[in-house]
Design a protein that fits this description.
The complex is a heterodimer of chains A (about 425) and B (about 290).
Chain A: H1 4-28, E1 43-49, H2 55-70, E2 73-79, H3 84-93, E3 100-102, H4 105-113, H5 121-127, E4 142-143, E5 146-147, E6 150-156, E7 158-162, H6 163-168, H7 180-190, E8 192-194, E9 197-203, H8 208-216, H9 233-247, H10 255-258, E10 270-275, H11 280-286, E11 291-294, E12 305-314, H12 321-333, H13 335-344, H14 367-376, E13 379-380, H15 389-406, H16 410-425
Parallel strand pairs in A: 1-2, 1-3, 9-10, 12-13
Antiparallel strand pairs in A: 3-12, 4-5, 6-12, 7-10, 7-11, 8-9
Helix pairs in contact in A: 2-13, 8-9, 9-15, 12-13, 15-16
Chain B: H1 8-50, H2 55-58, H3 74-81, H4 84-115, H5 121-130, H6 136-149, H7 157-160, H8 168-180, H9 183-191, H10 196-207, H11 209-225, H12 228-233, H13 242-245, H14 257-288
Helix pairs in contact in B: 3-14, 4-8, 4-11, 9-10, 11-14
The chains are: A alpha/beta (about 425), B mainly alpha (about 290).
Keywords (chain A): Signal, Transport
Family (chain A): Belongs to the bacterial solute-binding protein 1 family.
Protein name (chain A): ABC transporter substrate-binding protein
């Protein structure tokens, strides 16, 4: 037998291990967080997720403008939305967090309590003119009254409405300050039944949060997250209304009737649906009908509009604090605002620029109603910034789905739910 | 009963009815196979046709199998939206290194467990099998910390280096195959003057092609479809592998269904080709790893 074969195999193994080692070399230079040694050549890293398929590329183009303005390079670390927190926590465990991070509201309190965000309170007081911001904008980045993040954008959930169906039903566009009773009347008139089967529903799934906000101004808890409110009179009425839309008035589909359609509104299976400015492009490009937006209907003087927004924080592990803060200011209160609106359609948080959103490419006719809400309405992001809130929300959503599915008595069921939530999470 | 006493026409009738019985059982078998194939192929065909549907037809209700307009541009669109070519190259690279490392290490270790009897041989093997019970989530953070300390995060090393240290499942699979090879062959080689490594390389490995290909196929699919490791170890988009890269087509607000399906078709093509090429060996490899001399 030739002895050279074994040698060849051994050499091949050494060669491949060598190759792996070489790979390590080629990767580590630019990588390991992109933290560079030379002072004059700072590269910031910002942790983001993709809002739409070309989102990361368009965000990078905006960040490159910051580089042009300041000479500070910016690199994105992009993760998928549903794995965002997993990767964040893994990076945190090895002290390699990027310098800045977009924050998912459900995990905001968790990462803040773990000490992974920089306290921005004194920086904001000294360096940022807070009067420039829309009334509720800065609240998006506050926990217990302290500033931990700054908003990149702010918007509100509204209802999209198929205006062709409105015409067909002989209805005019509702007024911006319409009530829940008027909404129900529209939903009934827009629902189409053929041969005993509903072919078009008045409204796609009416989410729990905006309904509770309309009925009581609370969500499952009060805004501070210290008190369970879902069993209070107005909240019970809200949940009962959600159930009635499906079981009594038959203007909203059960999950079986929705048949897994991801967007009933675009598929022309519902005349109205909850939407935000982030949906405008998708609807404009895919809907074969005319459409518009209308604010959420109100119920009483406690009604609050559902707020949406994207907080950006500076991580406590950054080695470039000064540059990171400079970048954050640029994004939230500087030239970045205009560029983000143009580049990715985000709604500005600055009073002076918010009107420009009505002139964007995919803005519907009544986009000004959104501006009106942002400027004048009482708003809440509908998630208390507490560590347990995401869990509480999941449990409440499951129970409410059960109430709707089995047509249960909302009052009795919510009392039980509230009792168990109070004892489990030690809340009032 | 003496068969010669059975009348001729009765025998013919019996043989005809047996033949007919076989024919019907074949028809039923094929019918069942066709029905099952359709059931299993349906999601794949749905994927293929959705990949050429315009966006609004993906959302149409009632759903339609075939597009009214064949939108082939979904395929080039994938390359415009993301750096698909780069991700493809990265995946090929990582998968090939991973397959090489796994096959090399697993066969070597398996040979040791199958043929060499050292101290505590059984205990070591049991310990190896016990590592299969450890969920990867348990070791994820500690392993990440090690690579992080070694400054190897954001390189391909954490994705591939582990392959060179064997995998319990593949070692077990390979060992079972080695046990089916007669010891007499090994003894003959030893009489001819072969050393242990030569026996492994010149006798055992060539005789284990089916199991080696099985290990290679399974490893390839594992590396090709791996999402979690690239997710936690890779930060630069230019280094993303396919499984992670195509997730960009699924935004938090908007999903590009057509391009996403087109990308998925392109992602699974190598897996299908690899499986068809190695199918014969794969079945042979799996079927024979349970038997022993």
């Amino acid at each position: 037998m030739k002895k050279s074969f074994g040698l060849k195999l051994a050499s091949l193994a050494m060669l491949s291990l060598g190759l792996v080692a070489a790979l390590a070399g080629c990767g580590s230079g630019s990588s390991k967080g992109g933290t560079t040694e030379k002072k004059e050549d700072v590269t910031l890293r910002i942790y983001t997720w993709n809002q739409d398929p070309s989102g990361a590329k368009r965000e990078q183009a905006i960040f490159d403008e910051f580089t042009k303005d300041t000479g500070i390079k910016v690199k994105q670390v992009v993760a998928p939305w549903d794995k965002y927190v997993d990767k964040f926590m893994t990076m945190a465990s090895s002290n390699t967090l990027p310098d800045l991070t977009w924050i998912q509201t459900a995990s905001f309190a968790t990462i803040q309590k773990k000490g992974l965000l920089m306290d921005l309170d004194s920086y904001v007081k000294k360096n940022i003119d807070t009067d420039k911001f829309l009334p509720s904008a800065l609240k998006i980045g506050q926990i217990d009254g302290k500033q931990w993040a700054l908003p990149r954008d702010m918007s509100a959930q509204q209802l999209s409405i198929n205006t062709d169906m409105l015409k067909e039903a002989g209805l005019s566009m509702p007024k911006n300050d319409w009530t829940m009773d008027e909404f129900l009347d529209y939903a009934k008139k827009l629902t189409k039944v053929e041969n005993g089967k509903t072919t078009v529903f008045g409204i796609d799934n009416f989410y729990l949060s905006p309904l509770l906000l309309a009925y009581s101004g609370n969500n499952i808890t009060n805004p501070a997250g210290t008190k369970i409110t879902i069993d209070q009179k107005n909240d019970v009425a809200g949940v009962q209304f959600a159930s009635d839309l499906v079981n009594k008035y038959h203007v909203s589909p059960t999950s079986a009737q929705a048949q897994g359609i991801s967007n009933m509104f675009v598929a022309e299976k519902s005349a109205m649906a909850i939407c935000g400015p982030w949906d405008w492009q998708n609807i404009s490009e895919n809907a074969k009908f005319n459409w518009d937006v209308i604010p959420m209907p109100t119920v009483n003087s406690s009604s609050v509009q559902p707020q949406a927004g994207l907080p950006i924080g500076v991580t406590s592990q950054t080695k470039h604090k000064k540059e990171a803060l400079q970048f954050l200011k640029w994004l939230s209160a500087g030239r970045g605002q205009k560029l983000q609106m143009k580049g990715v359609g985000s709604v500005p948080v600055l009073k002076s620029q918010v009107n420009d959103v009505t002139k964007t490419e995919f803005a519907p006719k009544n986009a000004s109603s959104l501006v009106d809400i942002l400027e004048h309405s009482k708003m809440w992001i509908a998630a208390a910034y507490t560590e347990d809130y995401a869990e509480i929300q999941t449990k409440a959503n499951n129970e409410v789905s059960n109430i709707i599915l089995k047509n249960l008595d909302a009052k009795t069921d919510l009392k039980k739910l509230a009792k168990s939530l109070r004892s489990e999470y030690n809340l009032k | 009963m003496d068969i010669s006493k059975v009348p001729e026409n009765t025998r013919k009738k019996k043989s005809r009815s047996i033949k007919q019985g076989r024919k019907w059982s074949k028809i039923i078998s094929y019918l069942l196979l066709i029905i099952l194939s359709v059931v299993f192929l349906f999601p794949f065909l749905w994927l293929v046709f959705t990949a050429v549907k315009p966006e609004r037809e993906v959302l149409t209700f009632p759903p339609r199998m075939f597009p009214s307009v064949w939108k082939w541009s979904n395929y080039p669109e994938v390359f415009k939206l993301i750096d698909f070519g780069q991700y493809y190259l990265n995946s090929i690279f990582v998968s090939l290194i991973g397959v090489f490392g796994t096959v090399l290490s697993s066969t070597l270790v398996a040979f040791g467990f199958a043929r060499l009897k050292g101290a505590g041989h059984g205990i070591w093997f049991a310990l190896l099998l016990a590592t299969m019970m450890l969920p990867s989530q348990v070791t994820m953070i500690p392993v990440y910390l090690i690579y992080s300390k070694l400054k190897l995060v954001n390189t391909f090393v954490p994705l591939t280096l582990g392959a060179f240290f064997g995998s319990a499942y593949y070692i077990f699979l390979q060992r079972q195959f080695f046990l089916t090879i007669p010891k007499s062959l090994e003894e003959s080689a030893r009489l001819d003057g072969a050393n242990t490594f030569q026996i492994f390389a010149k006798i055992m490995l060539p005789l284990s092609v089916p199991s080696v290909i099985t290990v290679a196929l399974l490893t390839f699919m594992g590396f090709w479809n791996d999402f979690m490791n690239p997710l936690i170890y890779l930060n630069d988009q230019s280094k993303y592998t396919l499984a992670l890269g195509i997730m960009q087509l699924q935004g938090s607000h908007v999903v590009a269904w057509g391009p996403l399906m087109a990308a998925s078709v392109m992602v699974i093509v190598p897996v299908i080709i690899t499986f068809f090429v190695g199918q014969k060996y794969f079945i042979q490899g799996i079927a024979t790893t349970g038997s022993k001399e």
